[in-house]
Design a protein that fits this description.
The chain has about 40 residues and is mainly α. It is about 70% helix and about 0% strand.
C-alpha cells in the first residue's frame, strides 16, 4: 500500500466518521479543510 492510498483511506474514514455524527457537508469541509467537491466523492 502506497502512502497516497493510505492518505485516501484516512480521509475516507474521517469523512464517514463525521457523516455518521450527522454533520452537514459544509461542516465536514470546514472541519477537515478540504475542497467541497471531495466530500460527495467519499
Amino acid at each position: 500500500m502506497t502512502k497516497m492510498d493510505l492518505n485516501n483511506w484516512i480521509m475516507y474514514y474521517e469523512i464517514k466518521k463525521l457523516a455518521r455524527l450527522c454533520s452537514s457537508k459544509a461542516k465536514i469541509v470546514r472541519h477537515l479543510v478540504i475542497d467541497a467537491r471531495k466530500v460527495p466523492k467519499y
